[in-house]
Amino acid sequence: MPYIATQAFTDPDSYYESIGGVGPVEGIITARGNYHATLTCVNFSRLWMRRGEDSLARVAIYTPRMARTTIMFATDQDQPARQIAGVERQPDEVTVVSLGSSDHVRTSAAARWGAVTLPPEDLAALGQAISGRELTPPSFTHHVKPSKSAMLRLRSLHEAVGHLAKKAPDILARSEVARAIEEALQEAIVFCLASAEPVHVSSAHRHHARIMRRLEEALHANSNGPVYMSELCAAVGTSYSTLRDCCQEHLGMSPKRYLWLRRMHLARRDLCRADPEKTSVTEIATSYGFWELGRFAVAYRTLFGESPSMALRRPPDDPKPGENAESPWQFIKSA
User: Fold this and answer.
1) Model confidence at 224: pLDDT above 90
2) Domain architecture of the chain: domains with CATH
3) Residue span of the signal peptide, if any (predicted)?
4) Which residues pair with 37 in a beta bridge?
């Protein structure tokens, strides 16, 4: 019996935490506006599926840590290209994520995406059985362009599963239905990868991707406080000018802007989760290096549409002022 869940969000942190699957996903919103997102999760016996949509431009950081191969794609053609690891990717391309990578996925507008994950040994065996090719997981995240028919088949199946998860989860939960759909998705993935043309990524881009991976490792090692640029460059092992070029390529912004946005989002996360009886805006702001509290309050309101004190006082499960609460989790868990 599969695990099936659908949810709507107005809080980006909750959205990214709920994606899960094979490792943490973090997101930094880079545009102003009311945020809303939807997520569908279906875990079959071996294949796990995610289907999501979010409303604002963002940079998402995906760091797979479980021994599963992740395949990501746009769920339709009618959306802007994405930047993945600093390279523009078209909606008709599929990304195969390597284990141990830390890839930045940047969008300029609302995005609709899908993903499936499989144990690497399953993917290799399925590839050999279905296409006569052993599909081994990549040592470096790479991108392929499947045939139109294979891509259409994958998208159609993925959409159908998403629809069943929302409208008829009891049917999807039936063992015979789940098994048939899982096998169909596995076959669709194999045909996509077996029919695909590899998309070339230069050695320079791969070198920059390694620098960005070290950047994320350094930031995670110092996630509970401010990180200064000189310390960061030393930890990453590169000059500021090289780090600036890499951040511009992968994130569309300077490293200083990225660090500032990251600290603002971490402060927001703590404000939204803190007990106002036990902590204060000042305590949280200064813990992330915001010493000028007036400027912090103005920047916070500009970025998030409310004051830091409002975020601290609001119960964690409440939407922002002016927003309606979204639908709760609907789920069927395996026994």
Assistant:
1) no
2) 3-201 (2.60.120.280), 204-313 (1.10.10.60)
3) none
4) 9, 54
